[in-house]
Amino acid sequence: MSRPPINPEGTVLATSANIKPLKAEYLRPPVKTTDFTSKKLAGRLYAAAEGQLLVADRPNAVGGEAVAVEIPQLAAGRKESAYGVRFGQLALFGEGDSLASSELVALKSQPITVAARGMLASQYIRSTGVATAYETVGVLRESGESVSHVSVYKPEVITLDNYLWKNYDTQPMAKLETALAEAAYSLSVLHGVLNMSHGDAQAKNIAYSSGKDQPHFIDLDAAKRHDGLPFESADAHKLSDIEDFLRFQPQNFTSQQIALFAEAYQDYSTGMAHKSVGYKDILDVAQKSAHQPLFYDK
């Protein structure tokens, strides 16, 4: 591609010479599956030619070209949540080399079926208006059965590992307690309002936006909807989320901190239609997970 990227000093992460649309119908979450599996979306991604970029809601770029240039400093403060993710600026050029759009993005290489599930789970959460998740810009077809999912980079989104994992032993107690309460609120909304579970609810995958009073979720490719599931199965998924959050830490929480989390989860879930996980259930899970705190990506 002869046209220079907008940031000529950066490493070119990806290029595409033939942008195609990813129509809204492919991003419509299925209603009959619990794990957001969609043969329609997966089939569209498999059918794309290697090196082709499919974009959502960017009609001026269709038929044009794309350049993604790395901006390493965007990864600051996102070391754990950014595992396997590259950050940069995506420039989309339409007809006549006109700049159709330029935005900061995150690119994550994944198997097609995994990327498709995460995209649809994210789209479902965003459609509810009660929580947020990553916004799909497009999908870049790679070799074999892989794609790079391209999402909008949100500088105001702060993952909770910044408070619970990094320098946790020197963090002010107020910050730790705020992060625990935020996690409890986020999971209670996910479980009680959205009636779903995350599947990998580590602190690095739960965030808040400094500009919105809403939970923000990341890495949703293992998420499940609970509609139609027996209550026992749904509760097991909820408790698994809570166990993931409490277990995947660099340290054991104190009993007082566990109690704060459990009380906050119960307080926020009061009156929700699908409230079923109780205070004692959370304490039991905390007791089980407290013996072996872990600190790695599953």
Write the layout of secondary structure elements.
Layout: E1 12-16, E2 20-21, H1 39-47, E3 53-55, E4 65-70, E5 85-93, E6 99-111, H2 112-128, E7 132-133, E8 136-141, E9 146-152, E10 157-159, H3 161-164, H4 173-193, E11 196-197, E12 206-209, E13 215-217, E14 224-225, H5 231-247, H6 255-269, H7 279-289
Parallel strand pairs: 2-3, 7-13
Antiparallel strand pairs: 1-4, 3-8, 4-5, 5-6, 6-9, 8-9, 10-12, 11-14, 12-13
* Count of separate structural domains: 2
Class by alpha and beta content: alpha+beta
How much helical structure, as a percent, in the residues? 25-40%
The run of helices and strands is EEHEEEEHEEEEHHEEEEHHH
Question: Please, what is the average pLDDT?
Answer: 85
* Widest β-sheet, arrangement of strands: 1-4-5-6-9-8-3-2
Query: Sheet with the most strands?
Result: 8 strands, mixed
Number of helices: 7
Number of strand segments: 14
What amount of the residues lies in strands?
A: 15-25%
Low-confidence stretches: 293-298
Task: Write a structural description.
With 298 residues, the chain is of the alpha+beta class. It folds into 2 domains: 12-152, no CATH class; 157-289, Transferase(Phosphotransferase), domain 1, CATH 1.10.510. The chain contains 7 helices and 14 strands. It has helices spanning 39-47, 112-128, 161-164, 173-193, 231-247, 255-269, 279-289; strands spanning 12-16, 20-21, 53-55, 65-70, 85-93, 99-111, 132-133, 136-141, 146-152, 157-159, 196-197, 206-209, 215-217, 224-225. The chain has an 8-stranded mixed β-sheet with strand order 1-4-5-6-9-8-3-2, covered by helices on one side. A 4-stranded mixed β-sheet has the order 7-13-12-10. A two-stranded antiparallel ribbon has the order 11-14. α5 crosses α7 (279-289). The longest helix is centred in the middle third of the chain and has 21 residues, at 173-193. It is globular and about 60 Å long. The protein starts with 11 loop residues before the first strand and ends in a 9-residue tail after the last helix. The model is unreliable at 293-298 (pLDDT under 50).
